[in-house]
Amino acid sequence: MCGGRGTRLDSDAEKPLFRVGGVPMVDRVLAAVRESAVETAYAVTSPQAPGTATHVDAPAIETPGEGYVPDLEAALSDDRLSRPVLTVAADLPLLDGPVLDQVLARHDTGSLTVLVPAALKRELGVSDDTTFRREGREVAPTGVNVVGDDGDDAVLFHDPRLAINVNTLADARVAGQRL
User: Fold this and answer.
1) Among 24, 34, 69, 155, which one is most buried in terms of CB atoms within 10 A?
2) Rounded to whole angstroms, how far apart are CA atoms 176 and 179?
3) Domain limits of the chain?
């Protein structure tokens, strides 16, 4: 998923092309996907990120740019995809193949939401804009999910590679320090 503008990054660069450690985040995420057991990677782009659409070295699925959920739904309707589908946000510059393989190993059937403890995000010093309670614990979505045909399960990881989403310049500094 690489169609965001990244307005909170205070940069002229589109969010997926924002550089962390000198490398566009989308390139780091695509490298992680290719390093994993995933067979084919697609770049889900939007009119909000035209530079990203031309930059990525992966087949693209163009979406309307109406937000994460509508764009995900549009991407999932593409005939090239069959479920289950691993979805990964382009703002996870610490992601790597082994952690994606761990996520895939935890998937059984249906859909899987990957969460981290909100306390981990705070401990790392990164933004935690979206949190909620699950099984008595405050958690945050990671931007990594498996979308299946039915059911919804969740798995909790205590892993900075999944906890550091770059949404702000402060998040980018933390990610850069951890590279």
Assistant:
1) 24
2) 5
3) 7-178
Using a cut of 0.85, tell me whether the model's pTM lies above it: yes
User: Residues with Cβ < 8 Å from 161, sequence gap 6 or more?
Assistant: 92, 94, 95, 96, 99
Task: Give alpha helix (H) positions in the chain.
Answer: 25-35, 50-55, 68-76, 97-106, 118-124, 160-163, 169-178
In Å, what is the CA distance from 112 to each residue of 133, 135, 150?
A: 17, 16, 10
CATH topology assigned to domain 7-178? Spore Coat Polysaccharide Biosynthesis Protein SpsA; Chain A (3.90.550)
